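Table S5 (text form). Sequence records supplied for joint modeling of the two-component complex.
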Amino acid sequence: MVIDELRRVLGADKVLTDEASRAGRRRDSWVPSQLADADRSGEPLPCCVVRPSTLSDVIDVVNVCRAARAPLVPFGLGSGVCGGVLVSADSVVLDMGAMNRVREIDTHNLTASFDAGVRGSDAEAQVQARGLMLGHYPQSIGISSVGGWVATRAAGQFSTAYGSIEDIILSLEAVLPNGEVIETRRTPRASSGPDLRHLLLGSEGTLGVVTGVTLSVRRLPEKRTGAAFFVRSMDDGFAVQREILQRGFQPPVLRQYDAVESERMFGAYARSGDGLLVVVHEGPAARVDAEVAGVAGIAAQMGAEPASAKAADHWLAERNHVPTFGQFFENGIVLDTIEIAALWDKVGPIYRAAIAALGAVPGILTASAHSSHGYRSGLNLYFTFVARPEERSDMKATYLECWRSVMRATVEGGGGISHHHGIGRIRREWLRSELGDGGVALLRTVKQALDPDGFMNPGVLIPEERTNDE
Amino acid sequence: MVIDELRRVLGADKVLTDEASRAGRRRDSWVPSQLADADRSGEPLPCCVVRPSTLSDVIDVVNVCRAARAPLVPFGLGSGVCGGVLVSADSVVLDMGAMNRVREIDTHNLTASFDAGVRGSDAEAQVQARGLMLGHYPQSIGISSVGGWVATRAAGQFSTAYGSIEDIILSLEAVLPNGEVIETRRTPRASSGPDLRHLLLGSEGTLGVVTGVTLSVRRLPEKRTGAAFFVRSMDDGFAVQREILQRGFQPPVLRQYDAVESERMFGAYARSGDGLLVVVHEGPAARVDAEVAGVAGIAAQMGAEPASAKAADHWLAERNHVPTFGQFFENGIVLDTIEIAALWDKVGPIYRAAIAALGAVPGILTASAHSSHGYRSGLNLYFTFVARPEERSDMKATYLECWRSVMRATVEGGGGISHHHGIGRIRREWLRSELGDGGVALLRTVKQALDPDGFMNPGVLIPEERTNDE
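The corresponding structure-token record, covering 940 residues in total, follows.
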């Protein structure tokens, strides 16, 4: 029995079988899982939760589960929103929360090494105490782990200048499904074969367990300042953002809200019918000043009137608030966010198509979007939908219909189906549209090679094999 | 017979068997291969050279060679310097030079798509004609191909601001060893599972054939200006570079030459005994001005005296000159460059250890280095050695001893063994030090899964399996 074997190798204190521990880690924050819990619909609990405290513990867990063919479900801090964590009754949940040491902070090389289970906000506090910053600020920073960022290919709010997790990670340590450890070299850049970090980045627990992460951090900036502009339409705002980025400016934060969200999020700083473009500049003071003037000049030239810079301060103050949905669900309201990405010429059409499609879903209350990550080639869109179906029992169906609306508009519009939340279970059926048959086959080949027993987080990310008659 | 089958599927005109064609593609620009040619030492020629002109041709070649178990050796433009291309008598060389269409240049999204065989300088000329630039400028731009940049994980001279090929590539198309095609989605960023582009980036022909590449290009900068500073020692210069980069400045070019190279490369702009730090700034004019002042301020504060900015102009004018070594070889002189990377606290010790080790090689004439790519966490070093062994027949042995000296100093000093030239044959035995046993095993697992027949560029990159008694 896998529990006995885990107790034998780890010690009984690291193997939890009480109902509260099992219930607390049976899922991430995916809406259908939350709905199931709210309905007390008897969703399964895992057979046990293991809490390794060392790399060697993780190796043991992987080896025991592989030998026992027990589904092993890695769990960071449970903030995922795509169903990347969900158990069956025979699952072993690998809770990384007890592997939470800060390993080393190096102010000379600007590197910071953490156990995978370190909470993001703890990591940031630790480096800030040394005058540094991570530069990676997902909204979930207070409820997500450093290892989770790697496993899901996370992006932070300051990514437009500082990049996403793949640009900030220097090296990683991971346990592969066969129990072997890889630790990539801490070097600024390498041309030493394929970058093996990328097999783990975005693998969502299917190709291994990330146990340690070294980030390439930054000194705290000399200056930070905000700005905001009114944009008359999403297309107008996209044009302004494109000009800012393609002219070579890189403010870390560049967020554009449609009229619905501007009013909802910015109240007094919003102007009815207009969208808002919010900017945060950071860096050496003189360079920030040049960038502020450059961005303001582009906005003026393109007819985007200045709004109060307090809109940026407001955003900075509120940015880590993660709303909880429980109250909504109790009132029969279902809601979620969906992020996608696209090239500049596709982002406007996808915005309109997705909002229109959401608007046609029975029971829809609001459908809105903002962008939050900009690139030379395009940007992301972050949709929010709120719906109240007539029948409470239709909440999940309504939820899925809203997701289908946005995914369909994205795929048909030539966009990418996920900017930074990942695939999990909710996007799995759409991954074939994203990767193509060749890409899915390649992913399946790699999965089969690394995890021939298929015990690592089954049901997540990787589409089922196609049957012949499809 | 593989030649007959290739002629049947491709047409006879795409299958070259004349001696000149076979001799011209039997190798890249690796020094031992050049030495062998100079010695006319009867190195083998491939059985044939195929010149596909379409994706479908490449698929056919891959399928024929796999079925025939014929070693397939992809060949871009042959500028590699690590022995990534070298044939045996039964090899089929896949010369990508005839797949050289510019597929699309998109000035709205700033994307440029090329067949893999397009010459770098042709690609740059094509985008420049539209007011754009690639932002990727390897010294070899006139003799290397876009697909070769991907296959080797190349870095360009402007990487300190613009990133290396993995930061500039938007999507790729490739033929896998099983004949299937993957084409990754053109989207600015994705969290859709592991980034499959990274299985091809740096794969050096062992995991597939890159057939098409889309780059995320840039508008030409509003302003470019250069600067230069004298540094009294390499450590002094490293400290200045570290301060520039860690304070948040990112000039695209930041190159530091030791005293030997300063005098050799910059003549009248050098000062005896000092090193030179050469900077090129690019971007919006006001931001460039802020960066110029910021960098000059740091240099002044740290005691690096201004040198003539003409040193930067001189470098810009000379930067794409690739020296040929033939004349040296004829005179019994062997020489090469070796690039590595390391964190800031390791780069000084590695520099000294490598220069000392090179200095102890019998017949050494000069050993020198510069840095050419800077990061928050460290930088690269680019060593040059020139040696004349007493016996002409010792040239290859002397060459290998110089390489061993630098590789050993790098590995013992905790650096990364290759910054941007790749592994090929020359670094293959050192890859285990870089990736660890776990990393090498993982790479071998992926290779075995994608190319179970082992016909894709055998002998390159991937270390041999260890025997039990090692």
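Note: The longest strand of chain B covers residues 334-343.
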